[in-house]
Design a protein that fits this description.
It is a single chain. This protein is mostly helical. It has two domains: 33-69; 71-146, Helix Hairpins (Orthogonal Bundle). Helix content is 63%, strand content 0%. The chain has helices at 5-16, 33-38, 42-69, 71-90, 100-110, 123-142.
């Protein structure tokens, strides 16, 4: 692995870092290694994570409403989105994923029987498949359920 000049400099700084001695001298100021190595500072990452956590409850509520009120729509939407993510992750790497339909075939089997002649070749593809294997069967089991009587609009 080749390091950039900035990464090499940060690594050299890390190795030369000496903790403060007993005589009270202060340690040199440390660089933000997240910024150096990943292009995002620790404070930016913390702010973005806190923003996401603030939106989590609203997103979770909308998602649960969709599943409760329209279980078939929720299952189809989930499978279509997961198939798209799998297709994007695998299309240039996996010789068995040539079209969106190939990825939809694989993802739909992950949500049900778990058998297919296609296998994920990338880490992202494996992560998408694992998510579908966890969530998919629950959505598939509910997909033909009717909304609960208290959820039906009374006209």
């Amino acid at each position: 692995m080749t390091l950039t000049l900035e990464q090499q400099h940060a690594l050299d700084e890390l190795f030369t870092y000496v903790p403060p001695s007993a005589n009270g001298q202060s340690a040199p100021v440390q660089a933000d290694f997240l910024q150096t190595w990943f292009g995002v500072s620790g404070s930016e990452l913390k702010a973005k994570l806190l923003t996401l956590f603030d939106k989590k409850d609203a997103f979770e509520s909308r998602l649960l409403d969709l599943v409760e009120h329209n279980p078939l729509d929720a299952a189809v939407t989930f499978l279509a989105g997961a198939s798209y993510a799998f297709y994007i992750a695998e299309k240039d790497v996996n010789p068995k994923v040539k079209t969106y339909i190939d990825s939809f075939y694989y993802i739909s089997t992950c949500a049900s029987v778990g058998y297919a002649d296609i296998f994920a070749a990338t880490q992202t593809g494996r992560a998408v498949a694992a998510l579908v294997m966890i969530v998919g069967p629950a959505l598939a089991a509910r997909s033909l359920d009717r909304p609960r009587p208290s959820d039906v609009n009374r006209d």
